[in-house]
Amino acid sequence: MPEVNIRKFLTMIEEIYHEGGKAAQKPLMRGAIVAVIENPFAGSYHEEITGFMKDLEPLGLDMATRLIAALGGDPAAVEGYGKGIIVGQNGELEHGALWHAPGGYAMREVLGGAKAIVPSSKKVGGPGTRLDVPITHINASYVRSHFDSMEVGVPDGPRGNEMAVVLVMTTGARIHNRAGGLRASDIKGEDGLR
């Protein structure tokens, strides 16, 4: 398989103090990193594509490390995560599925073995396409306070022969969360769900 050809990175950090209620003493931070890369399968159908997942693994680790640094540098501060991909118009949705394992395992590794499955979204679109990336708690998918999403996009990408691969991390629950359910302090950590 060809090496991953990166055109550019884009990193976004949000600091959220309130959603209409009292301002939090410590803001929730939501961060996303996007790598715009060449899609080696764009333009024609390829039966065998799975080898590219292995090629994406170093990129996933690099992106996860960069995102933690942008959020302050402490992996222990990260409580939520998600991933996504926008495939350029000369590609197909299945090319986006190749990001599931490299993106998810990279975050779990740099976060010290997080247990929950990394939620994901993907779509095909052109430059400026926006993607809502779902977020859950890193160790228990049922922690309702951490159900969130972050909208991401690249103004000039992905071009037709590119993909925009995305990782998202947060430092806590939604500001003013009050929808009940399993609390982060009650996680058992046995199965990635509770």
Automatic annotation (TrEMBL):
SUPFAM superfamilies: BB2672-like. It holds the Pfam family AA_synth. It comes from Rhizobium tubonense. This is Peptide synthetase.
